[in-house]
Design goal:
Layout lengths: L2 H10 L3 E3 L9 H8 L3 E4 L20 E2 L3 H26 L15 H19 L12
Parallel strand pairs: 1-2, 2-3
């Protein structure tokens, strides 16, 4: 079996997936694990800080624990109800992080990026390059 397919199967069969930093703080495994319904465990917030547009309130569906032992302790403390809450929160944001067919009825990663660009353009247009007090309603 191809390695990446096996990895995705492991993510699909797991509740939590440890995602240490790779050659950069953010790695594809973070997104792969979330897309397979596995709550990522990361060492710190730099693992997702570059993706604030798509990953808002990350602490609601990403577990931050520097060491695996810390993650185990946090998972034990949260219990099944805590896991269910994190998983539910992951399901709510997942459509904004994946690429989908145009007719899905939700905002996928591309539409989120395009809306953000449009919002920035409107702010720049109405604020003449300065911060405006009230951005357009869709921002």
């Amino acid at each position: 079996e191809h390695g990446s397919v096996k990895t995705l199967e492991v993510y699909a069969d797991s509740l939590f997936c440890f995602q240490p930093h790779g050659d950069s703080p953010t790695r594809q495994g973070l997104f792969d694990s979330m897309s397979m319904g596995c709550i990522p465990v990361v060492p710190d917030s730099t693992s997702f800080s570059g993706y604030r547009l798509h990953i808002r309130d990350a602490e609601k569906f990403i577990l931050i624990a520097y060491r695996p032992e810390d993650a185990i302790q946090k998972i034990k403390e949260m219990g099944e109800e805590g896991y269910r809450r994190m998983f539910h929160n992951l399901l709510k944001v997942l459509p904004n992080m994946i690429y989908a067919h145009q007719d899905t009825g939700f905002d996928d990663a591309i539409s989120v990026m395009l809306k953000n660009l449009s919002c920035k353009a409107e702010i720049m247009k109405h604020g003449n390059g300065k911060t405006v007090s009230s951005p357009p309603s869709y921002c």
